[in-house]
Each structure stands twice: as structure tokens, then as C-alpha cells.
Design a protein that fits this description.
The structure is a single chain. By secondary structure, the protein is α+β, with helices and mostly antiparallel strands. Helices cover about 35% and strands about 20% of the residues. The longest helix is centred in the C-terminal third of the chain and has 30 residues. The radius of gyration is 21 Å and the shape is flat. The model has no long low-confidence stretch (mean pLDDT about 85).
Length: about 220
């Protein structure tokens, strides 16, 4: 999404997503600031209700929207997901509601049950923790899963997420593109499969591994 389209998106989001979900083969739709395969946002120092002196936890964040976890297939552990029927779930000014991952609450020394409804602050936005979501890798599998907070911060979304019920056919892609151009004609229809995104993440690691193997072979030859 272009910057200019993000505010417009909120006025057309319901109609756009309903048409997308009406396409045979698509089960869910959501939007987010960063792709679930590679969240590159910064980590901020968090504060929470009941925090003890000297406790420091840095937490990454991702701005998501309704149906995000259902779309990417990640389950809630405790509490609830953000609800389109609750306008207060959307961040306003310095207020926000949060969903944290399991790694975040472990770092805070809390259980999932203890964390629910506690006030939490990240980047000067404060509000209750309404849900805990299962840990999932949002970087490579070689990176340990770090504390993550999710909230709904309007107008900073960059990516649409579309979940299919099976392998995506060219016909489905054409229908999605048609709906996209109808509502967002100024934004190019540029898409990728999540599986391809993961492959791209690991390409550099594969190249490095091959280089190391070649270097080791050369060292063995020279040694011989």
C-alpha cells in the first residue's frame, strides 16, 4: 500500500474485504504493518502494571487488524482477539489495547492468566492486555522468538494478507487483482506467496553455507 492509500483504506476496508472473501477459495483477509514472515520493527522498552524495580523487557511490535491471527493460523492462549465490534480496540492518541505473545509474558515473569487486563505501555501508548497469543516465528527459524506486542494503530498498514483454502489458481489471482484495482487503482497489484517469502529469507543462508563448504574444501586441499 502506498502512504496516500492508507487513510482511504479505512473507508473502503469492509467492502473490499467482503468482496475478497466472496471469492471461492479465499477463507480470510486481514492487513498488517509488517509481513508475518519477517517483522522488522524496532523493539521498545516496555512497562507494565506490577513491574518490579530493575525489570527491563524490550518488546517488538506489529500493527495488525481484525482477523489477523485467524488469517495467519495462530491461536489465542488466553483472553480474546481484537474485535471489529469493539471500536475501543483501535488505538487512539496515547491509549491502546494489546495482545502479547507467550515470550513477552514469560519475560515479564507472568502467566497468561496473570497478564490479562494488566496495563501495559509501549512507545508511550498505554492500555490493558486483552489477549495472549501462541509464540510463532516472525523472523528466521535461527532467531529465537522474542517478546512481541500487537495493537491496532491506524494508517500505518503496508500489506494485505489473504488466506486461501487450497493452492491458489491463476483464476483466483485474477479475481483478487480485479477487486484490488476496483478499490485501490492507484496502488500496483504486487503479490507474493508466503512460502516464497520464507524461501527468499533462507536463500542468503544457503549461499553462505555453500560458500563455507567450498572454503572448507579448499582448506582441506591446501592442507593436503
Amino acid at each position: 500500500l502506498y502512504d496516500e492509500s492508507r487513510e482511504k483504506l479505512f473507508n473502503i476496508y469492509n467492502q473490499l474485504t467482503q468482496e475478497l472473501k466472496g471469492i471461492n477459495g479465499i477463507s480470510n483477509v486481514s492487513i498488517s504493518c509488517s509481513s508475518p514472515s519477517l517483522v522488522n520493527t524496532s523493539a521498545g522498552l516496555a512497562n507494565w502494571e506490577g513491574q518490579k524495580a530493575g525489570e527491563e523487557v524490550y518488546v517488538q511490535w506489529n500493527s495488525i487488524f481484525f482477523n489477523y491471527f485467524e488469517t495467519i493460523g495462530v491461536k489465542m492462549v488466553q483472553g480474546r482477539d481484537f474485535s471489529e465490534f469493539n471500536e475501543n480496540d483501535i488505538s487512539k492518541d496515547n491509549r491502546s489495547k494489546y495482545i502479547l505473545n507467550e515470550s513477552a509474558i514469560k519475560s515479564m515473569g507472568l502467566t497468561a492468566r496473570e497478564a490479562i487486563n494488566r496495563n501495559f505501555t509501549l512507545y508511550d501508548k498505554t492500555g490493558p492486555i486483552v489477549g495472549i497469543v501462541k509464540d510463532f516465528h516472525f523472523k528466521t527459524l535461527n532467531d529465537p522468538i522474542k517478546p512481541m506486542a500487537f495493537s491496532i494503530i491506524p494508517y500505518i498498514y503496508r500489506e494485505f494478507l489473504i488466506r486461501s483454502t487450497s493452492a491458489v489458481s491463476p483464476e483466483v489471482v485474477e479475481k483478487v487483482e480485479s477487486v484490488w484495482k476496483k478499490y485501490l487503482p492507484e496502488d500496483p497489484f504486487d503479490y507474493a506467496y508466503l512460502s516464497d517469502s520464507y524461501q527468499n529469507i533462507y536463500q542468503s543462508e544457503k549461499r553462505l553455507l555453500n560458500y563455507n563448504r567450498l572454503l572448507a574444501a579448499l582448506i582441506i586441499v591446501v592442507s593436503s
